[in-house]
Each structure stands twice: as C-alpha cells, then as structure tokens.
Design brief:
Distance between the termini: 21 Å
Number of strands: 4
CATH superfamily: Gamma-glutamyl cyclotransferase-like
CATH class: Alpha Beta
Low-confidence stretches: none
CATH topology: Hypothetical upf0131 protein ytfp
Helix content: 10-25%
Number of domains: 1
C-alpha cells in the first residue's frame, strides 16, 4: 500500500486511490520464504467481511509479479473494488497459492509498518487503521 515503496521498487503507476473490497477478509497466512513463522498478507472470501486498501493504476505488471512472487507464491485474480458508493472498478489483486498457506503465522513489525504507512498515506478509515495496528506481530 505504501506508494513510496512502490516507487522505490521501480513500479510506475498513473494514480492511487483508496478502495474497499467487499466479500473478502485480510489475513496473514501466506508463509514467508525467509521465516517459516512469519505470515504475509492474503485475502480469503468471506461474505460479511471487507478489506480497505489502495488501488494502483498500473500498466505493466511484470515488476509487481516479481515482488509478489507470482505465479509461484501468489496468483492474480480479478475482483470488483469500490472507491465510493457509485464507482466500482475491476482490478487485479494477488492471493496466496495453496502450497504456501499455513495457519498460526504472524506478520513482522516491519511488514505491518509498511501496510499501516500506506493506509495512513491514503486516508483509510480510522477503524481500519486501528484494526491493522492491533494485529498480533512477530518481533524482528
């Protein structure tokens, strides 16, 4: 979510805006290749849930695929985001491959710092930022 991290990775985007993905829940069950107890973000379908996040308008996905480990670690799916009550946008997001999913994982402090920074940059709701800040993390 952190637009500065996107740019530092050489990922160019036309625009970025906050959005909501309904019918999904954010969890951290994607196993890290560096630390088997560390979890990265993943989305699971859950009818009553929603995920706040940031849409980036990207023309070339090759660099994002590399950083997300696609197609080995994550796969791309198309979903419908809302950025206000009247605007829906079909976009690509990444979900973990089944072979990299484990239960009982926690994100690292640094990983959550990146997510929270992006949430604050894009003015996600106070409730959602609090939710991110309250997630149990691994000390680095």
């Amino acid at each position: 979510m952190d637009q500065h991290k996107m740019l530092a990775r050489g990922i160019q985007f036309e625009w970025a805006r906050k959005a909501v993905l309904k019918g999904y829940k954010l969890i951290f069950n994607k196993r890290s290749k560096y630390n088997p107890t560390s979890g990265f973000a993943n989305l699971i379908a859950e009818e009553e849930s929603s995920v706040e996040g940031v849409l980036f308008k990207i023309e070339d996905y090759r660099k994002t695929d590399i950083y997300e480990g696609c197609p080995e670690h994550y796969k791309k799916i198309f979903v419908d985001f809302e950025w206000d009550k009247n605007n829906k946008f079909q976009a690509v997001t990444y979900v973990a491959q089944e072979s990299y999913i484990s239960e009982g994982l926690k994100p690292t402090v640094g990983y959550m710092r990146h997510l929270i920074k992006g949430a604050e940059q894009h003015d996600l709701s106070e409730e959602y930022i609090k939710y991110l800040k309250d997630i149990d993390v691994l000390e680095e």
